[in-house]
Amino acid sequence: MNSFIEKQEEYLKNKINKCGYNVNEVTLNISSRPEFGDYQYNGAMALAKEYGKNPREIATEIVESIKLDNKYKDINIAGPGFINITFSDEELIAHINELKENINLNYENNNPKKIFMDYGGANVAKALHVGHLRSANIGEALKRLLVALGNEAIADAHLGDWGRPIGLVMLEIKKRNPELPYFDELYNGEYPKTSPVTNDDLMELYPFASNKAKEDEDYMEEARVMTAKFQDGDKGLTALWEHIMNVSKTDIKRIYDRLNTTFEVWEGESDGNKYIPEMMEYLESKNLIEDSQGAKIINVAEPEDDHEVPPLLLVKSNGSASYETTDLACIWERMKLFNPDEIWYLTDARQALHFEQVFRAAKKSKMVNEDTKLEFIPFGTMNGADGKPFKTRDGGVMTLESLLDLAKTECEKKVLPNITGEERDKVAEKVSVAAVKYADLIPYRLTDYNFDPVKFSDLQGKTGPYLLYSTIRMKSLLKKAEEAGIEYKKYTKINSDIDRQVIIGLLNLRSVLTKSMNTKSLNDITDYLYKITNLYNNFYSNNHVLTEENKELQESWLTLTSVIYENNSKLLNILGIDVPERM
What we know:
By secondary structure, the chain is an alpha/beta fold. The two termini are 38 Å apart. The protein is 51% helix and 9% strand.
């Protein structure tokens, strides 16, 4: 079933074609001048060019044809040929009642796809920092949008669990505890079931080892040797790695859970590494691998390139696999296990060339189907309120958990004083997550922005807490109506222009969802949510719903409230925002 606007567009397309003008599609836009109409069709100008006629003449023909059906409350022409349409009350009322029965009307999908998503990228044994927010947040919202629109989405945390950071941590553990059996090559017993390190240990070990390696080349070389030994399958180091993985993954998952970020697959670079031998054999069979100064490469440059695209490095001169090789092996694995229609990668914009090389190699080797879409989805950076990178007081990189705690402290101040104890803590947590997530999704994906915990925790303005407060108030109104025994089953009467504006605000949802999918950005949804909520709040301020004596009008108002509430709840859920019972 098509959305309300899609039905109108299909109707107009048929009328225009019957007038003798060939159009494949018609697009209606929200009118910039509401006094002239609800929506506007601007296609007469394009038709005028194609048919060599005056655009107003074409617009007149179309309008006169439509008037014969008596379908609209008003249809008129403005300027050189803009067609303004005002929908009839009957059609708008019918639409609200359709939404009351099925809030998912705007989400139906005739062409569902299976999409594999990579938007984690957390490094094992290292704290998640503020730079991890955007990939987790944007990725999760896009996944929820995909699922809401009827697609299958599979997300992988893609943990960094294979490179030198692991080697550095293992080396420092050995330096401090050389007696541990993981470092004894002659050890033949069972390794301990309990980890020798806690997550707090790991949070201290990695920064210490990393800084030391920068200052001490001998230490760095020891780390390289440790990393290579681990990657070659040393059984003791593998057992230690499993402990580090279990401890670190538990903490990473805890913080992702705070953000309502979920993954269907919890794999890492090590999982892709397992597929390198068979992938290399395949690439050899395709005669794509070339030797280059002791290294193995695939040339991925194309004659039509307008920028330099270096060869993809498969095997370094020292015999180790590169980061590009691991990502290519992950594509091999994902095609083999999941065979998705598309694979999406979300990282910051600096990774663009890397993914261009990997995607070209995957396509050139035909390890993905010809119609499989590989897409890199970059994003801008989040800075502090001063426009500079988020830092701790001592100048270090702020952890993601510290940012969430900072927002929670601000949002707790906004929670009602009669909400106490454990409930107060849970409400403050939900409100703070809403503040962080909504603020992060307001700008277009590629735009850098400044996060101000005070500004974005405000109950007024374009903030997550404002949307939560308004949505909770809608739910409270409906609950009070239920407690008072007031029934509301359908919408029957548009009482005022204020009521009508709310309904008109609902009509554009399908195009907002479509645009968000096309741009892979959530800013249109955040903007839509803010606008529709403002329209409803204006309606709420002007109408005393629960004390209204006209029962038909009261039922209509409650029905409209229930539709807006369901609409808001669904969109907030897509953004990964939970609505508390009260705040």
